[in-house]
Design a protein that fits this description.
Layout: H1 2-6, H2 10-24, H3 30-37, H4 45-53, H5 55-65, H6 73-82
Helix pairs in contact: 3-5
Length: about 80
């Protein structure tokens, strides 16, 4: 019944269909995207192809790649200054 009403609004129907398609897609595991971002893993060719087409997996990878790195040297220097 809802789908029939959505059909009256082509843009909304198109977005709904896109959302349904995204949910049906088998995405790359977050763990594998994290390992790739860290440089510890090379994606398989099917994953590589998927990544080039999937905005969801691209967005997850973007977050992992742009995470700030942990730098322990300022903390260690503060400990040395206190001594």
């Amino acid at each position: 019944m809802v789908i029939a009403h959505v059909a009256n609004y082509p843009a909304l129907a198109n977005r709904l269909q896109t959302s349904i398609d995204v949910m049906r897609t088998t995405h790359i595991e977050n763990r594998r995207l994290f390992e790739m971002a860290a440089g510890r893993l090379k994606l398989e060719s099917r994953e590589h192809d998927h990544l080039h087409q999937c905005e969801v997996c691209q967005a997850v990878l973007y977050v992992f790649v742009n995470q700030p790195t942990i730098n322990t040297s300022p903390i260690q220097s503060k400990k040395n200054d206190a001594a």
